[in-house]
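To illustrate this point, we now present one chain and its tokenised fold:
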Amino acid sequence: MIFDPAEYPHEKDVRRALELTVSQVNSGNGAEKADAKFMAICNLYRQEHLPSLEHSTRYTNAYLLDDYIEAHFGHAPIRDVKPLEIDRWLKSLKLAATTKASIRSIMSVCFDLAALHEYIPPMQRNPMSLIKLKGVSKRQKKVPEITVDKFKAIFARLPEPLNVMVLLAGAYGLRISELSALKWEDIDEKRKTLSIVRKYTRGQLGKTKTAASEAPLPMSDAVLKVLEEWKPKTDGSEWLFPSPRTGGPRSASMLLQKGLRPVAAKFGLADVGFHSLRHACRSWLSSGGADLGTQKDLLRHADISTTANIYGHALSDDMRKAHEQLVRKLLS
């Protein structure tokens, strides 16, 4: 698979980075590989790993590889790039801990590729295993606390269809990428279920975050009624929330910056985003008495440590009961 420069027009000197193709890399002799620069491995990453990633991750990783990793280490001999130097460099970067963790992950794959193609001894320990980062798992920003009363106040102030989207985000904890990608075919009125089968990010449709994310969800009569009233206003579109400009899914950033956030700010919740509603949904389910396993299944977490290890995504009576109880609160 070939990395397409046209897909990433912002990247610097992409032609230079791709001058060394995978076939050239593999045909090099031992002496050439011993003297090779780290940019050869960056090129391997672009050729062999980058195309396998999801669109949004591919976009981000290409940027980090070009503007940080290759910019700093590209002209250094591969065998001279040592863990201590990498560690000091990462600590010097004024980036969020999660971004540094992404850089570490990319470099770890680079070293795996270097070992696979025998630029470094194949049995050598991956240098990135020695790099430890602080604050990666710690939440950097406090999640705003949204009470049911404040949710109802925000919901009442929002125009259509943003109010309907916010209701689904609060009732199900849906990610905005999942909300934007909903189609009417995902709703089964007879079985009263909602299926999450795709996401929409950076202008691209793709698979959901994890396999667990595709679990069916119960739909209360109250939510079905709201959607039945909204459907005629979509002019026969296949999408639940079609863009009036393109007819396709709506822009998440526009929904947030010009829709939800200004209204939420009037109620003292200036930093509210759609993911805040996901956290709020979990809190409301807990306060309503839903057990941890039910919360996990409704929020479609891969394991209970994300919500403490219960598996399975069958649509249980507890899930429907918890969902209907929550919707009654939000729409009372």
Summary: The chain is about 50% helix and 5% strand.
